[in-house]
Specification:
homotrimer; alpha+beta
């Protein structure tokens, strides 16, 4: 009689180049979109209005890029990070074809690096994951690395292998879907008159608003993504943890920060790449999240007169006023109230 | 470097006849409808069943009228009432074309009145707002007035201008969508045998049931409507307010009261007009909402033998038994437990 | 002036063979499906992916069987169990045609048994309910019995009548939708390699994961089903009850247990029958639900080489580790932590 319940993979279960096809394939729908709006209050016009999206050359309103990311990420958890001690980082995330309600997303992963830690009790696993739609087109592609427990501390470690990962992407690393035509972009409907030319490198923007998180909200979000990480859902078990609380999925904070960034970045209509992100401190129900952003880099896009790319750092904090743009202390350590330091590229219309 | 974050309009920023096209256009979907049902538990058959709606001559189940109202109202907040001290009232709301999943709603407003208060620190702004669908058809149209702070108390006040507003509408002020044909209306599926002829002016109905509100629920609702009023979401800031709590969007109470009114008014299948409403006291998470209604007026409709109109007052209370129809104290002041006094017209089938 | 509010039926209001057509008909949508995923985190591939479902011969992903059950059950409450003292049991539930987004479900019931209790204050009502789609096809059919208060204790009792009900169904009692063709079933997408042949009668499976319930979640679920039972929603009234709390709809626990059972029973792709279920103890917000299952019976299906049926007992507990499969105490009484003892048949692919 075989064990029917999966307890997930431990460090010694992974091998270099190992491939996974993850359960469960997911048809994304207008229902998911409505829940995403209800959970984060996002107001970017491209994802809110079919008509607005069609005016930009699309077939209708595509799903928010982060919703696609969460759907794919969620599927990888059962195979890759159920026994993770820590999510160490992610890098080189690019978004491919737009995802529309009715599309079906499948996630695959490959192990691209393995390195046992000196303690001999854990190791770091590097995973390259890709989400594809029903036509086989890439919709999101990224690398993450996690620290995973060994089941048996005496298991022989694999040959150490650590992939080369870029600190950040540049405009030649990502693609702008060719169907976009921004010539009739309407700034009044989009909610701001500030376009690509108006932003300067080094400029900081306080997004002002704050949003308090409830347990029901972050759990509904994380279940919607079919993410099964136990720490988000089980108060009976978490009560015994060092936090004593359910931990909020880091992606929930990213989505809240992106939604809050609308006030100041309303025309940053699409995320095209994620360079990396640090979840500096855990978030819990009851925290009030607010955010600020800094323009790190600006870039024109080859072959496009209508769109430019802004590289942004968006920082989410809890229970803070962000008018002084809090981030680190005098020693460069993240402040206790800093939850997220997120580095990504958005597209923004250029002035005609 | 221009300020990228909008801090909203202050009293001196408004001018008479000023027009707004509000962000963000919104395609409403079956996802929004499902969330509306999950948040309020509404059971009116017209909005619940495509088949029932098609039997009445429609193309499918239209959105609940209040869901349409909230969607339009929500869009006006960022331009009109972010710096509001108080929502003073609304009037003359009519509903036009039915809204179906897949339709895209856009909101526009015009300033139709301005009057500085004697304190010199605030003023009253009268706004005429209209929601339209993708064909340009009016779907909802109303006036509201709010008290808004001045940024600079020394700013020169505008010429006072106060619009004439009706205390209530009559049947000639609103339209019944012509596609309605009630000849095959099924009372068993609708949930009640009581039709237009059975209600009498002065009759009071205790809707009996109660619904306790959670923070996650009212915030999900208000974000679904893309309403950005800060007081609903930010416990960190609200903790410093005189209430110490997040305030619940008044429209949430209206929708709960309407859903509760099903038990007693199940055949009041459509709201056609809102004469006005008073949010007598603020509502908070943990409050249990119940409701009662009074029939204020009955009217036949020109050219329709199958439908009549009832003008109703629906009162929502908190933590109360409503069998004595509580409303005001001996001095005519609203009781502390009275949350809403809502005056509106519904359509109801007439006996063949 | 007639009483407009329904206070529901009391024991003496029911007559043998009485029939009900329940309000409110309900078109089920992708919005309902998204909410179901967000509320329970279910990962069964059949209900999650149109492509996966089409590969099995269906037109798209059908609704989760339990979502259909809850929708039908919810509609019966206002007519049948508003004045119920206790839900005593249910039996002989079978699922018929698959339900897809866009279908409209209507519920009908017939009273098939009545028996006054010896106290003279209450009686037991046996109700046979059936949900049908817009084509009149049966989608779910079941019997339940509830203890209902008498309005007037002196009302003359009806002739006692108790229907014969099966303790459990067998494979000849239920039907497998003929459109299913499992020949290309993909176990990697489904999330498990364990098929019909791998399970043995008597085998117990600890589903490991736990899920803490919030008030907002169970109320949103129960309203989504348009279930109006007062005890789930009204803290003001429930504060006076012997529990002092809102009670969670028993079906919410069933759905959570089914979703948790994915880890161990991922290929149990469809519920075809429910033999019965006991809600051993009430559940409240804050409870962390986990589950274990036992294989009670295995059966091949007449005329099908690709599918077998497993009869399962799934037990839900609260705030428990389930590695010792807790159920009853030494006297055979359910433990205080046992919430649900659920007996049902699922379909599972057979090895080619």
């Amino acid at each position: 009689m075989t064990q029917k319940t999966s307890d997930g993979n431990y460090f010694e279960d992974f091998t270099l180049n190992q491939e996974f096809i993850h359960a469960t394939p997911r048809t994304v729908t207008e229902g998911d979109v409505a829940l995403y709006t209800a959970l984060y209050g996002s107001r970017f016009a491209l994802n809110s209005s079919d008509i607005f999206a069609m005016n930009l050359g699309l077939e209708g309103a595509p799903l928010d890029d982060l919703l696609v990311f969460h759907m794919v990420f969620g599927k990888t958890v059962a195979d890759v990070s159920v026994n993770a001690v820590a999510n160490l980082g992610y890098a080189a995330a690019t978004f491919g074809g737009l995802v529309y309600p009715g599309d079906t997303v499948i996630a695959r992963s490959q192990i691209i690096g393995l390195k046992e830690n000196s303690s001999g009790k854990t190791g770091v696993v590097y995973i390259h994951s890709q989400g594809r739609n029903q036509h086989g087109d890439m919709v999101v592609d990224y690398v993450r690395w996690v620290m995973v427990n060994k089941r048996n501390p005496k298991a022989v470690p694999p040959e150490p292998s650590v992939p080369q990962l870029p600190t950040h992407l540049t405009v030649t690393d990502f693609t702008v879907p060719s169907e976009f035509d921004l010539s009739t972009y309407e700034t009044d409907l989009a909610g701001s008159e500030h376009l690509f030319e108006d932003y300067q490198v080094g400029e900081k923007i306080n997004h002002v608003d704050g949003m308090t998180i409830e347990e029901a909200e972050h759990m509904m979000a994380t279940r919607l993504y079919q993410n099964t990480a136990k720490v988000h859902f089980n108060q009976f078990a978490q009560g015994e943890s060092r936090f004593g609380r359910r931990l909020i999925y880091g992606g929930h904070i990213i989505s809240l920060a992106r939604a809050l960034s609308f006030n100041g970045l309303a025309n940053g209509f699409k995320i095209v790449a994620i360079n990396g992100g640090t979840h500096c401190n855990p978030a819990f129900a009851g925290d009030t999240i607010s955010a600020w952003s800094e323009v790190i880099e600006k870039s024109e896009l080859p072959g496009r007169r209508d769109i430019g790319a802004l590289r942004l750092r968006t920082v989410a904090t809890k229970d803070q006023d962000n008018s002084a743009f809090p981030l680190t202390d005098g020693d460069g350590k993240y402040l206790a109230a800093t939850l997220l330091d997120f580095d990504y590229w958005v597209l923004m219309p250029r002035r005609p």
